[in-house]
Amino acid sequence: TPEQAARMKKLQEQEKRQKVEFRKRMEQEVSQFIQATGEPRRRFQPMNKIERSILHDVAEVAGLTSFSFGDDEESRYVMVFKKEFAPSDEELEAYRRGEEWDPARAEERRRLRELAAQQEEAELECGPAPPGPPNDYKDKYRHLIGSDAAKAAARTMEANKAYGCVPVANKRDTRSIEEAMNEIRAKKRLRQAEDD
Predict the structure, then answer these.
(1) For the structural domain made of 2-102, what CATH number should be given?
(2) Helices (H), 80-176
(3) Mean pLDDT across the stretch 133-145?
């Protein structure tokens, strides 16, 4: 209907006017921020997606760096940084976690990481750590079999000849691997010659 179309057009014009007014307001705030000498960054109030995109555009035109932070749509906000105070990755991570950036704490963390890396490097240079005290396997099972049984078992322990390596005496085939492979190859060649 014509009334709905007129109402829609009026709403669109009003929305467009609001965006233009918002952009002007942001341009003023950004220019104030640029002129403020003691302010390396500025945090803006949470705003919707369209307003954030307008603010990002204004910041880019002004030659500033801007980022959005916050988890949900209602609490997302924009932070604008002067180029010479562009944030480090650590600073950005702190804002993403919702923490305030504390350069002193970050420097302390960096120092601790450096110290840990140096210690690790020193440990690697020294070689592996000496092994712990020798462990007697009987002590491990003493609670199950008692100390007398463990000693008796240790005395009578011998390798099971039916398990593991086959003694040379039991081998029927005394050829080496090379001899066996050469024999297989010779048989293959013979078979191919017969087929041809």
Answers:
(1) 3.30.1370.50
(2) 89-96, 103-126, 137-140, 142-156
(3) 64
Whole-angstrom CA distances from 93 to 24, 60, 100 are 31, 21, 10
pLDDT at 111 over 70: yes
What b/e sequence results for 73-93 when a residue is b if at least 16 CB atoms lie within 10 Å of its CB, and e otherwise? eeebbbbbbbeeeebeeebbe
Angle in degrees, 0-180, between the axes of helices 49-61 and 2-35, rounded to the nearest 10: 40
DSSP secondary structure string, 167-188?
PGGG-S----HHHHHHHHHHHH
48 burial type by CB count under 10 A (0-12 exposed, 13-18 middle, 19+ buried): exposed
**Surface-to-core class of residue 69, CB atoms within 10 Å of its CB (0-12 exposed, 13-18 middle, 19+ buried):** middle
* HSE-up of residue 54 (Cα within 13 Å, Cβ side): 18
Question: Which residue, among 90, 96, 95, has the nearest Cα to 108 in the 3D structure?
Answer: 90
Are 123 and 116 in contact, with CB atoms under 8 Å apart? no
> Residues with Cβ < 8 Å from 40, sequence gap 6 or more?
81, 82, 84, 85
Pick from 27, 83, 22: nearest CA to 47: 22
pTM: 0.51
Edge-first strand order for the sheet with 77-81 is 41-43, 77-81, 65-69
Q: ∠ CA 106-78-48 to the nearest 5 degrees?
A: 145
Average pLDDT, the chain: 81
